[in-house]
Amino acid sequence: MRTALLIGLLSSLSWTAMSQDSQPFLKAMNEGNSTALSMLVDQQADFQIGENRQKVNRNQAEKMLETFFAPKSELRFLFRHQSNTNENNGTRYKIGMLNADNERYRVFVLFKMDSGDMSIAELAIESP
Fold first, then answer.
1. Each residue of 78-122: pLDDT tens digit?
2. Which of 32, 96, 110, 117 is in Cβ range 3.0-4.6 Å of 79 for a Cys bridge?
3. CB-facing half-sphere around the CA of 82: CA atoms within 13 A
4. Which structural domain, as residue segments, surrounds residue 43?
């Protein structure tokens, strides 16, 4: 009984910590802030915007995001689903929807936890 309670408590704390850690991502997505988003990118990350998928560094990620966000004015991003942390590799994914002007995009982001720091290992922005 104590073990189950302890596991539940740790899972809850992990969920809360990850939710707080992803606030900079959420804020940057709602602002269309490519610079802030690129600062969250791991040294190398898989990026897909539309059909364009490639492995990028922070500078390349910023340029891709800048191009994506440039023509968009009204942005609203919400997370819809997230996984538990994968104990084997310290990753967690989140899925959200981005409303940009009159268009909707499905957003998949894979966060990697390393020594308490969170970074984006993969980001996909695609039309549903």
1. 999 998 877 778 899 999 999 999 999 999 999 998 877 889 999
2. 96
3. 16
4. 2-126
What CATH code is carried by the domain that includes residue 6? 3.10.450.50
pLDDT at 31 over 90: yes
Q: Above 80 in pLDDT, residue 19? A: no
d(CA 7, CA 24): 27
Residue-level length of the chain: 128
Specify the number of domains making up the chain. Answer: 1
Q: Parallel, antiparallel, or unpaired for β 117-126 and 41-49?
A: parallel
CA distance 96 to 24: 15
Tell me the whole-structure pTM to 2 decimals. Answer: 0.80
Write out 93-122 in H/E/C secondary structure.
EEEEEEEECCEEEEEEEEEEEECCEEEEEE
